[in-house]
Amino acid sequence: MIYYSYCLEVTMSRNNFLSYLIVLILFLTACTSPTPVPGKQTATPANDAVLNPKEPVQVVLWHYYVSENQQMLEDAVRQFNQSIGAEQGIIIESIAKGSIAELETAVSNSAKGVINSEPMPDIFSSYPDKAIEIDALNMLTDLNQYFTEQEKQEYIPSFLSDGVFQNNRFLILPIVKSTELLYLNASAWKQFAAATGAKPEDLATWEGLLETSRQYYMWTDAQTPDILWDGKSMAGLDSIPNFVLVGNKQLDADMVDADHKEIILNLPILRKIFDIYVGGMAMEYFNASGKFRSDNIKSGELIAYTGSSSSAAYFPIWIEQNNSRQDIDFMALPYPTFAGGASYAIQQGAGMCIAKSTPAKELGAALFLKWFTAQAQNVNFAMSSGYLPVKTAAYNDQYLQEALNKLRQGSAGQKNVAAVYNIALEQIATRHTYAAKPFAGSYKLRFILQSTLSEAAEAAKKEALSMKSKGLGETEIVSALDMDTRFQNWIRTLQNKLDNEGVAHRSVPVQ
């Protein structure tokens, strides 16, 4: 397989480059993401005061992990229960609750005491916005009670700060993190590049990705000159909300204003974002079908997509083409930025919260999470699918290199994961990372962005297809789509849905 990073210095060895990145990551996170201000903190209760191995306490953990991550978690739980758990009197029971949306619904129902809901779990995977919602119900434990300042300093500051909220309430412990990258079917890309002169550097900006996708569509369309408008789409996005939120940040705006508890609709910036996505989807330069774009790669519908570094394990090693199997190579590039914008990339990943319960259950939960995020367990869990470990010690060059070497000697999917680390680590080291600080109810924005932008794109695509069937040319179609009116309609829909959900917002008009 081919692994590609156009930003790497060819004279720098892999090991030296990785060492450089690790040092730079730790330096930058220390400088740009200060450790949360110490709050009032009580000492961790003595284990023997609340835990008894003769009467073990059961701690229920809800999560959304699937496939290899789920197996790795279950293996870790089994190892903990047979060692520290047995010694201290703690039994962890891990339960997969489906997707993150299904997990969040189950947690909310339990916290609110909805009829027929299950008892509240003792530990659950959570993003910041859900943690804020559950904390407002007085259901979350402040982890400052169980983690000393010295223990907190072991975590990468920018990762830890995502889980610290107003009044220094420490609600979420980071477990693993990820970023987003641009993935390509390198085999298909090489054919296209050889014929057109396209370069990986062309994909560094959103504008470049759109134009290159247009060229790819036209190139594939020209291969059947007797059939009009039968070109192939090139690229897709796994996460529309991430594209919109990070796009705003790249263009010097925060869409989520946690200080004033409102959504900022910066119209000039949103117009650029709208034109890239809806324009690309309407003309079929971009495309999306089904839940994951990696599935579109496998079916041959796309040759590129933006997705989480943790999705590298799911990138197909072959595609279905003409009823036959064709092996493909893998390429990973940094996440695109808007032309003239700052090089921000997403930093994401659910951590874990501890629900208020008995002292024994809370302490048992805290001891498990400390053990699970220790170097050995955390590196093994994170690197099984392209996540980033959360503790500084985990980035010890030798330990990380051993884990990477193990991946490189594994299956094709594991080799893809290993290749992603060079890009992911480089991106975090050399770019700004961004995670929007939420406020109560702000999580609804993600669903609204997903639904409204998808609907706007589908409506535009439907009209464009109709015009293509009538033999209209590209210029005529783009003009007839009337993107000005479509954008205004989208903004009105966005505003109405935010109003209906009770989410405050204000617009920044075009100057």
Q: How much β-strand is present in the residues?
A: 5-15%
Order of neighbouring strands in the sheet with most strands: 2-1-3-15
> Major beta sheet, specifics?
4 strands, mixed
Question: The CATH topology of the largest domain is what?
Answer: D-Maltodextrin-Binding Protein, domain 2
The whole-number mean of residue pLDDT values reads: 89
At CATH level 2, the architecture of the largest domain is 3-Layer(aba) Sandwich
User: What is the domain total for the residues?
Assistant: 2
Strand tally? 17
CATH C-level class of the largest domain is: Alpha Beta
Q: Helical stretch count?
A: 20
Radius of gyration of CA atoms, rounded to a whole number: 24 Å
CATH superfamily of the largest domain: Periplasmic binding protein-like II
Would you mind describing this structure in some detail?
This protein has 511 residues and is of the alpha/beta class. Helix content is 47%, strand content 14%. The chain has 2 domains: 186 residues, 3-Layer(aba) Sandwich (D-Maltodextrin-Binding Protein, domain 2), CATH 3.40.190; 239 residues, Periplasmic binding protein-like II (D-Maltodextrin-Binding Protein, domain 2). Strands 2-1-3-15 form a 4-stranded mixed sheet. A 4-stranded mixed sheet has the order 7-10-6-13, sandwiched between helices. The termini are far apart. The N terminus is likely disordered.
